[in-house]
Amino acid sequence: MKDTLQPSELAYVPFVSVANMMRLIHTIGPGQMMADMASVIEADFKRWPEFDKTPRIAAHSEEGVIELMPTSDGAQYGFKYVNGHPANMARGFQTVTAFGVLSRVDTGYPVMLTEMTLLTALRTAATSALVTRLLAPKGAHTMALIGNGAQCEFQAVAIRELCKINTLRLYDIDDKATNKAAKNLRAQGFDVTTHTSPEDAVTGAQIITTCTADKQFATILTDNMIGSGMHINAIGGDCPGKTELHPDILHRSDIFVEYPPQTRVEGEIQQLDPEHPVTELWHVFAGQKPGRTREDQITLFDSVGFATEDFSALRYVHAQLETHPFFDPLDMLADPDDTRDLWGMLMRAG
């Protein structure tokens, strides 16, 4: 981003449509883009104290949730609008849709508006892969994916990119979802087996990633399914009343979180005492606290998604537009000849 811009340069805002986001992803490559994004996310975790942080602003209903996720590092401001409606799939709609804005703090002017349905899938998987690389046991070679919906393939590709995991074991209560994921992942060169129960799917896996969508207290994994030394990415539990793991697993695990004030309300740890110890990821990335310290340690990433990760994704995409100008100019900012004469601008349009 330039240090100084003329007002005329700010009149039009780059808009990255779904079609242009797909062009960008195909140009860079999905795996490479998630790996690159993971580097930006890590860099932003390392400068965590610079960010304004607040739990996402959520409007809950029986059908789902609509959320705003804002943050700023003092130079740029970003937010994401995102919904989560598990019943949408049965009605032919996406469970999750999103868009985001990146702005300059010095002028308050937006510098990019973008779709974030695809981008959220990329940044969610990039974050999982980043944390898996940090916490997975040495020599891990197999991952179980429990929940084979829209996020499944992104998780697999990102974790292979960062952690070299190519062997996958899939399970979903919906056979169609598993068959879809197996077909897509085999086409990407993965060694895939499908299973009829979560117990079978986790057998022989060192990494388990859960990404189910139902808005309920669920027990996707039970204590007897988790052996010593495993790493778990618990992604699906991301709002109040929505979990995936039996509480006994939490008591056996060392738990790593993004932002405790949000995770204690929305994550797996909403099932625990509010004082239950957790480790904030930024401390680990900054070298202030350890990650995995023992071979028999069970590590759990209680992932709910945080605004800084969206901010990282937004600034990554914005930087890419300099060399990959896949955007449309959006006329969304009033630009009167005299900044005090907005009325005059309006009258000239008549």
From TrEMBL:
Pfam families, per database record: OCD_Mu_crystall (PF02423)
What name is this protein filed under? Ornithine cyclodeaminase
Q: Where is coiled-coil annotated?
A: none
| InterPro entries reported for this sequence | NAD(P)-bd_dom_sf, ODC_Mu_crystall, ODC_N
Write down the PANTHER family for this protein, in alphabetical order: KETIMINE REDUCTASE MU-CRYSTALLIN (PTHR13812)
Q: Which domain of life is it from?
A: Bacteria
